[in-house]
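Study this protein:
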Amino acid sequence: MNNVAGTKVDPWVLKTPSGTSEYTMYKDESHDPPILVCTVGKTVLHYDLRCINDLHEMLKKDGDWIELGSADEQKPAKEGTVEAWGRSSDNPVGGWYGLKKGLRGRFGMYLPPLMEALGLAEVEHNAKNNRMRAK
């Protein structure tokens, strides 16, 4: 990836782990706290920008493949998944990395492809039940 990618004018163009949907993400460091803006169709999600480093650290500590387990905010996340970690009171922010109430889920869907694009993780690309691990 070039250094300019990841801005509002040059967002990362990504595909979900299964490869079925395209979406964009970019950093907005003017926001407090700095955020990742994820646009899927007409839906705009926000995630705390520190989730990239925090997720990478968690994956490195774990050292193995972790199931993604993507779920909407209103649905429970499967225990032991990236999704569950992204909303757990045990993660570094003590809860949700998603910042827009009602749209805080899907962490396990949209963060892994970005981590892969940034060279921080390996992600499986099966039809379902994908996993990731740190690089």
User: Anything to note?
Assistant: The chain has one domain: 12-134. The mean pLDDT is 95.
